[in-house]
Fold this sequence. Notes:
This protein is an all-alpha fold and 112 residues long.
Amino acid sequence: MFFLALGGLLLHYRIHPFTGIYRIATIASLIDAFLITALLCARKSAIYGLLLKGMLTILGVVLMWDFSIDSFAGKHPSFSDWIFKSTLADILIALAGFLIAKAIYDLYHKVN
């Protein structure tokens, strides 16, 4: 979980500098890498980690998809452009991180 979040942080920081609106996403990536990982390490705080991860995932998906739509404004992108030249891969990484957090939470609260 930590390394997936750290990879997302480094990927984001490589693409966008820590200026302007990108500060929000960089701070969210730092929260994901350190705070959420720490919350998911304990059974009692795992629910808070999962909730925070869910909120950050929604924020990330919305902002990244908006970034893709803005980059295609005034152009006529093909289907392959939407797949390979948008932030779809980054969105899928964010969703995978959420599913991993959900799996960790489910391991703590397994029903017999």
